[in-house]
Amino acid sequence: MMSSRPAAHRCIVILSDKSSGSSALQTYLVRFVGGRHVEKTRHHEHETLYWTKAASLLLRPQEPMLDSEVPIAPKPARADLLRLLRDNLGYAPDASDDREIVFRGWRALCEHFGPLFVEKSPHHLHQWSALELLVECMDASPDVAFLAIGLVRNPIDVVYSSWQRWRAAPEPNQHEWLRAARNLQKLSAVLGPRLAVLRYEDAIRDPDSLDFVHAFTGVPPTPESRGFLHGDSIQKWKRDPNFRFALAAPVRQLALELGYRSEELASGGS
Predict the structure, then answer these.
(1) Quick one: three-class SS letters along 111-168?
(2) Structural domain contains residue 151
(3) Residue 267 domain-assigned?
(4) Of 38, 45, 197, 219, which sits 20 to 30 A from 124 (CA to CA)?
(5) Considering only CA atoms, which of 14, 6, 41, 9 is closest in space to residue 184?
(6) What is the pLDDT at residue 235?
(7) How far apart are CA 167 and CA 164, in angstroms?
(8) Does residue 265 belong to any structural domain of this protein?
(9) Mean pLDDT, residues 123-143
């Protein structure tokens, strides 16, 4: 996973659905490989929604999301991006072209929060237009070594977590998982080795599954890092008698393609 190109800065972008373990992975990257994330944002957990806002600003198509302000209208999206950059950099890039503001802004964040800038916004994996812009920025930034981590989690654990925390409806939520997972498959074909697909459950059960992160950053793992992630939330729905839900056939099929076993996807009924 090490970049073959000399690069002054490194950037890891976590791409996932909601409730898929991205917060835990972000914490891992900050604590054990020296990553840094933005300091100021109006969103929770240091999320920026940078590329969805960029897609809005540049009038790229986006899909509506459940319980979300995305897609944001172009004018407030532009104001949000400029505020994010000013709040974290002290300035916004000077460019008359909005696309150049977006790309210069991201490279400036990579430089400011170097040597390793870490970003996670679960909204990005739902918007192919946002992913396209991220890829364009990666291709246009030879001074930044990029690694995208496609973090996936068992869909029934995802819908249960959202149902438990926010009472989000499982039926439409599973289809959001499906959209994100399909976009991840499509992105994998585009990015090749610049994208590492990681199952949350593998990161929990096998610390060696994160060795690619340490190879990319050059920071070796430690005994503390090996024992940091835990599996308390895996298959938690099986212990909840109030949760009864059966995955739709397309969701189940894609989960099987991602390596999940039938017994991990079974439910107590709909």
Answers:
(1) HHCCCEEEEECCCHHHCHHHHHHHHHHHHCCCCEEEEEEEEECCHHHHHHHHHHHHCC
(2) yes
(3) no
(4) 219
(5) 14
(6) 80
(7) 6
(8) no
(9) 97
Of 130, 91, 94, 97, nearest in space to 112 by CA = 91
> How would residue 6 be classed by pLDDT, with cut points 50, 70 and 90?
low
Report the C-alpha gap between 57 and 218 in whole angstroms: 36
**Residue 270 pLDDT exceeds 50:** no
Residue 134 belongs to what domain range?
Answer: 9-230
For residue 70, how far is the Cα from the chain centroid?
15
CA Rg value for the chain:
18
Q: How many domains does the chain have?
A: 1
Please give the average per-residue pLDDT across 78-91, as a whole number. Answer: 97
Say how far residue 230 (Cα) sits from the centre of its chain.
Answer: 19
Is residue 166 in some structural domain?
yes
HEC readout, the chain: CCCCCCCCEEEEEEEECCCCCHHHHHHHHHHHCCCECCCCCCCHHHCCCHHHHHHHHCCCCCCCCCCCCCCCCHHHHHHHHHHHHHHHHCCCCCCCCHHHHHHHHHHHHHHHCCCEEEEECCCHHHCHHHHHHHHHHHHCCCCEEEEEEEEECCHHHHHHHHHHHHCCCHHHHHHHHHHHHHHHHHHHHHHHHHEEEEEHHHHHHCHHHHHHHHHHHCCCCCHHHHCCCCCCCCCHHHHCCCCCCCCCHHHHHHHHHCCCCHHHHCCCCC
Strand partners, 9: 144
Token pair belonging to 100: 């150049």
